[in-house]
Amino acid sequence: MKFNEVMGQLGQYFTVDEGLTNQVIFSTATSMRVNSGDDIVILQAPISGFGTSGDGQSIDVVNEPQLAEMAQAVRTGTMADYAAKYKDQPLAGGR
User: Fold this and answer.
1) Which residues have C-beta within 8 Å of that of residue 69, sequence separation ≥ 6?
2) Which of 50, 53, 66, 77 is most buried (CB neighbours < 10 A)?
């Protein structure tokens, strides 16, 4: 699937202000240069463990202090430092 097809399918699920047009999103995404898979870092919200919701569903329990640290890294443009700090952290519970 090509990038513009993915964006077309996912776009319906986003709400943004009027200044963030499809063209702005497309221009930003296509301006990024990814030379290999090594240029991509995948992160998830940090979790401290697993639990069960009141109605019996499995849930990941968010590590609130580390999530606040991640949010600060997003706000300040220091995600590379955050990712390096936690690169060896396994998922809680060994999952």
Assistant:
1) 82
2) 66
